[in-house]
Amino acid sequence: MNPLLIRFDDFDLDEANARLLRNGNAVALAPTPFNLLCALARQPGALLTKDALLDAVWGHQFVSESVLKTAISDLRMVLGDNPREPRFIETVSRRGYRFIAVPAALASPAPSPAATATATVVAVAAGLRPSPAFIGRADASARLRQGWDQACSGERAMVWVAGEPGIGKTTLIEHFVTTLGGIACARGQCVEHYGTGEPYLPVLEALAELCRGDRTLPALLRTVAPTWLLQLPWLSTAEERETLRRELAGLGPDRMLREMAELLDRYTEQRPLLLVTEDLHWSDRATIQLIDYVARRRGRARLMWLSSFRLAEVIALDHPLNPLRHELRQQRLCQEVVLDPFSETEVADYIAQRSASLARDEAFVRALHERTDGVPLFVSSVITEVMDRTADDAAVEARLAAVAVPENLAAIIDHYIARLGSEPRALLAAAAVCGVEFRVDTVALALERDVTSVAEACEALVREQVWLAAPRAPEGDEAAEPPYAFRHALFRQVLYERTAPAARTQLHRKVGAALERERSAGVPVATAELAMHFDRGRQSMTSLRYYAEAAEAALLHFSPASCLSHVERAEALLQQAPQGEERNVLEIVIATLHGAAAFQSLGVGSEARNAFERAYTLLPAMPGHAMRGRLLYGFGYVLSLRGEYAQALAVAQCTEALASGSNDSALKLVACIVHGQVNFLQGRPRAARAWLERGLAAAKALETAATEIYVADTQVTLHGLLAIEFVQRGLVEQALAHAQRSRERARELRHPMTRLDATWRQALFEVRLGNAEGVAALAEEMQALVDEFSLAQGRTACRWFRGWAQAMRGAPLEGYRLIREAFEENSRLGMRSGASEVLGYAAQALLLAGDGDGAQIQLQEALQVADELAERVYLPQLWLLEADIARAQGRVDAGAASVRRAIEEARAQEAPWLELLALVDLCEHHEAAAVERRALAVLVDQLPEARDTVSVRRAQSVLDAVKPA
To answer: Over the stretch 711-732, which tens digit does the pLDDT of each residue have?
Structure first.
């Protein structure tokens, strides 16, 4: 905030030097009255409430109003001001005080180049014109200024301006922004949508404005917020965007919240930022979530986020903003400024701008106030209607008496509509169908009129200062002409509603067709906007195509919630679409996207499964569908995660058949991955190995990294699976090579989901080697990935791996707690794959804690799950664990029987490594038969790659101990 340097009457006030001069001579004034004078003089003519002055001068410390009265009295004494006939400070009874002198600015030093460079004006310069003198709102203005001062001091300020339509929310915000001068300010507008709007639309609009005004911001976006950079395609090349998509595929939407919060923190280190978001009652849910996240964030940030909304709509429509505003206010994380209608005094002040004598006519003022309820937009509309510059006051009063002033604003707007000619009415109706903002080219195409004539008509409507606001001046190298906008959203809303339904439907079709033509010519048009127009134009098939496109774009832009909203509307439209191949094609697309979005946001529950299944049942009728790879992989993946292995294999077989018939390499790869993974989990290693090796060859031939089909890079997945399969065969060196290649490729690709996949499988590999230190390090690495990139899939796994490592390293009860909590959370999400192994970890932890009975309960649950799912991959270890529990309980014979079951299962799975572990256990703890010792010796000889492992060294020790002397 710049220090005051002003002159009023005989006084010079120099705030920077704490000096008050009268005719050039210093005036003695104590610090508190001096600060009070500065607070009043900073807002001449504005009413400053007692509370505002107490906060401004005494801060938040508790002081009574008597202290303020004393300071005012001292100040008046120094200024020689009579409270009954004030020249400088006017008392507003029971409310506060007003500085009524007319100040003049004194010359001040020019700002330094550095200061000028950091004062970036963005949205304020975008079309704001000088406005008439601002009326009233002194308290509201003071609270906004207090929020800005708070932000400038490093404490983030979330401020909401609330009120009814036409109450002056936008006027207040524009006045406030204008008073701040050259600051960094970015503005975004929420717009009314049919269904779900584009995620983060007003924030993206503000960010784009900020990038145009500050050329350093795109570089910061690349460093701190790459997911947001992807939303602004003009800031990067097509190749850069494709690389970003590969690197960021699979990220959760929480990542976008964290990136934007970090971006705001970093940006405001250099300069304070005012972020303005208007009409939050039309906001998408993603923007509300972002506001919530930023408001609750800790740490320093020179940020003021100023938003507006219609209070009644937020409450009546159960908007997600309503509970949020209550929560944040209770926690003192925001402040809400609710605007009231104008008082009679403020109405008189408004009239005085046009006629001082009418403003003094109490009857006229009272009549106008009664007829408009003091709503500023009503007042402005009626004054415009009854006054003009040539009419005398008597004629104006007569006109007010004669005009039937409507009772509400909609009726006032109806009155304006009735005065429109046929051509302006048609133009504005088409513009209203476009939205609050519209392009001249769009309206011209829709009306089949010449662009020049439409532009001239728009300019004429701007000059009337009723319907339209002029577009802002183009900035930089913008190719498209800036749009026109309705002066107030209510004017657009009423005009839209007053257009006959049939005509409105036809206009939506025409606007949709116009937008299609513009899009084909390179004008950016949101697919959700096209979908909405054709939806309202009752062209269901065209609308369905665009809803599908919008849903896919939402997934690419890390917003599965928006994708779900688009597909839900599309699914409702499908019921109206005519039967036929085109409908089936679109239904497969929509259901597949529904499954993918539900999987990302809700896990592998029934919604994701059912959506994929619906698409899968339609696929046989159109086996060449463009989305079949994504569908089959997604469905097979979800089924395998749910532990529905038989169904997953059926999908893999279908995929294999389609791949063979079409020679589709991508489909072959899908079949190999699903077959290999399920066969591995169900203990068929030979079949699993064959599928995995075929898949690896196919993946290398395709050289495909993470795409829209695969969750993670397929080569990384396959190398990781082969590493575990090879270690169970005792081929430790080859297993290590696969594990190393998996990790190296994941690091090269830098794709978060791929890195998580590689780390997860490496942890499974290290568990089989008994490497607790290695598993602990990998669990921390997984946790870091989950936290940084919001990877929901790894949230539970990193905790059970950490729990297993802690149990092995001497903290078994804490380890058990982590394992069990993670397992239960995973189960709630519907993921049962690998459940028998995780329950085995829990049993092992309790056994290490000395709780044999608890371990037995966990083990029985693990064995039951293994039986239900036919999940045999971890069964040998479970039988060995049962032997350990039996021995701890003194049931030695039962323990020996369990070890022998482990040996049988290992042999059945062709897993010599697991067989070696079981034979070592038998020889160490039981009386092994000679044939069993010979089998152990044969295994040691057959597993040269494992000779340096702890388990093989143990086996050699056992064999050495029984050799004859």
So the answer is: 788 999 999 999 999 999 999 9
Cα separation, 232 vs 841, in Å, equals 46
The residue among 614, 548, 628, 622 whose CA lies nearest residue 580 is 622
* Dihedral-angle region of residue 80 (phi above 0 means left; psi in -120 to 50 means alpha; beta otherwise): left
Closest CA to 137 of 178, 169, 180, 91: 169
pLDDT at res. 133: 58
For residue 880, the tally of other CB atoms under 10 A from its CB is: 26
Short-list 365, 364, 371, CA closest to 407:
371
Phi, psi of 333 (to 5 degrees): -105, 0
Task: For residues 601 and 560, give the distance between their C-alpha atoms in angstroms, rounded to a whole number.
Answer: 6
Question: H or E segment at 605?
Answer: none
The residues with which 96 forms a beta bridge, in sequence order, are 49, 92
Q: How far is CA 147 from CA 55, 323, 338, in A?
A: 12, 22, 15
Of the candidates 576, 537, 521, which has an alpha carbon nearest to the alpha carbon of residue 529? Answer: 537
More confident residue, 25 or 623: 623
- CATH architecture of the domain formed by 5-105: Orthogonal Bundle (1.10)
pTM summary value: 0.73
**Distances in Å between the alpha carbon of 131 and those of 38, 100, 459, 569?**
25, 21, 19, 43
Three-state SS sequence of 818-839:
HHHHHHHHHHHCCCCCCHHHHH
Q: Are 217 and 256 in contact (CB under 8 A)?
A: no
* CA 356 – CA 358 distance, rounded (Å): 6
- Using DSSP, state whether 389 is helix, strand or coil: coil
362 burial type by CB count under 10 A (0-12 exposed, 13-18 middle, 19+ buried):
exposed
Q: Going by CATH, does the domain composed of 420-473+480-525 fall within 1.10.10?
A: yes
From CA 204, how far away is CA 198, in angstroms rounded? 10
The CA distances from residue 813 to 623, 823, 855, 877, in Å, are 53, 15, 11, 20
More confident residue, 97 or 238: 97
Give me the residue label for tokens 């595929």: 249
The backbone torsions φ and ψ at residue 32, rounded to the nearest 5 degrees and listed phi first, read: -65, -50
The span from the CA of 656 to the CA of 235, in Å, is: 42
Structure tokens at 131: 């406005």
Q: Which residue has the tokens 């942890």?
A: 763
* Residue type at 88 in one-letter notation: F
pLDDT for the residue numbered 386:
64
Radius of gyration of the chain, Cα coordinates, nearest whole angstrom: 36
DSSP 963: S
Q: Residue 751: its pLDDT value, please?
A: 85
Domain ranges of the chain: 5-105, 113-338, 344-405, 420-473+480-525, 894-965
Distance between CA atoms of residues 239 and 179, nearest Å: 43
Structure token pair of residue 277: 């978001």
Neighbours of 825 (CB within 10 A): 15
Domains 5-105 and 420-473+480-525 share a fold: yes
- The residues, ordered by sequence, that sit 6+ positions from 677 with a Cβ below 8 Å of its Cβ are 640, 688, 721
CA 598 – CA 592 distance, rounded (Å) = 10
List the CATH code of the domain at 113-338.
3.40.50.300
Share of the chain above pLDDT 70, in %: 91
pLDDT tens sequence across 536-595:
999 999 999 999 999 998 888 778 888 998 999 999 999 888 899 999 999 999 999 999
